[in-house]
Amino acid sequence: MPTESEYLLDLFPESMRFDSQAINFVTDAAPPTLLIHGGADDLVDAG
Length: 47
Description:
The protein has helices at about 5-10, 15. It is mostly helical.
């Protein structure tokens, strides 16, 4: 989750950022989920 937000940078220190990504919570047991990111989102850069 590339971000410039100081709040999110403090909430997710460098060592935790990869593990905080939603894709890391997908398992065979998890229900189907649709993740959508808007192109005009100026808070989170999809990278």
